[in-house]
Amino acid sequence: MASISLNGTSFTPSGIDETREKIGSVIAAANGSRRFAHRAHKREWTLTWTNVAATVRDAVRTIYALTTTFTYVDENANSITVLCLPGGFQSSVSLISYEGGALTLRYTVTLKVSEA
Fold first, then answer.
1. Which pLDDT tens digits describe the chain residue by residue (116 residues)?
2. Which class for 81: exposed (0-12), middle (13-18), buried (19 or more C-beta within 10 A)?
3. What pTM was computed for the model?
């Protein structure tokens, strides 16, 4: 998978999903017909990391904790101003192993970033 940058930090996610949303208002006429007053298109990316160490999970969580907009450089080197909205971070344990007397945990991490 290609590398990306979030707030100047490089990451290599295992998955990148992009969705595009129309921004505007639905207007209903007196006869019930509807129109859409289109204002803009905005994109949202769901970035996924699979079986990563706690250091990667913590770095992604640090990005999610940002309270202002920041720069996302996507896999095609496009620079987009984004922000993290509430509910945009998820982490779960995907692998637990105990070998050679050491416990190893690996995580699946998901981060959603939205175009500002």
1. 689 999 999 999 999 999 999 999 999 999 999 999 999 999 999 999 999 999 999 999 999 999 999 999 999 999 999 999 999 999 999 999 888 888 999 999 999 999 99
2. exposed
3. 0.87
